[in-house]
Amino acid sequence: MLKRAFDCSCAALGLVALAPVFAVIAILIRADSPGPVFYRQVRVGRHGELFRIWKFRTMTHVQPDGAPQITAANDARITRIGRVLRRFKLDELPQLINVLVGEMSLVGPRPEVPRYVALYPTHLKEIVLSVRPGITDLASLSFRHESEILARSKDPEREYVEVVLPQKLALSAQYIATHSLRSDLVLIIRTLARVFRRA
């Protein structure tokens, strides 16, 4: 209950405080390329429930058939403003809406698309899906350069499934086994510090 109250309070305050930033980003996205401001994709949440995640759109609106569901740093679909938003993680800010309505938490395992959740080992799947997914977590910090890692691979999707995903799942399980409000605060501070350091 304390974690949920903390999430709701921070998400509400964040949405109000960041409203001017949202407005500027929205204008830049619309000026840069045709299409909607937000991108909504189906993700798997707590107990396997599906929900639509909120993100600022960073890619071209029209996607080719069979487009991959992971994004490498050199992906030609990423727009000019999208590269800036991704670099500073600003595309993730609208997920405060998901937090406010109870689909996500500020800190928790990053929510995946159903395609990759289907590949989770059974024991880890039960653990990872036992909590609300989050905007940031241990795996997000450890793989903050994930898109660059995938860009260096000849087969980005295979690299993600066979190398990156198992490590992220292990970190998510570690977080769930040890998390507390104090550890969540530490992870939030570490996340903000990395964003500002990159800026």
UniProtKB/TrEMBL annotation:
<keyword id="KW-0808">Transferase</keyword>
<feature type="domain" description="Bacterial sugar transferase">
    <location>
        <begin position="3"/>
        <end position="196"/>
    </location>
</feature>
<dbReference type="InterPro" id="IPR003362">
    <property type="entry name" value="Bact_transf"/>
</dbReference>
<dbReference type="GO" id="GO:0016740">
    <property type="term" value="F:transferase activity"/>
</dbReference>
<comment type="similarity">
    <text>Belongs to the bacterial sugar transferase family.</text>
</comment>
<dbReference type="Pfam" id="PF02397">
    <property type="entry name" value="Bac_transf"/>
</dbReference>
<protein>
    <submittedName>
        <fullName>Sugar transferase</fullName>
        <ecNumber>2.7.8.-</ecNumber>
    </submittedName>
</protein>
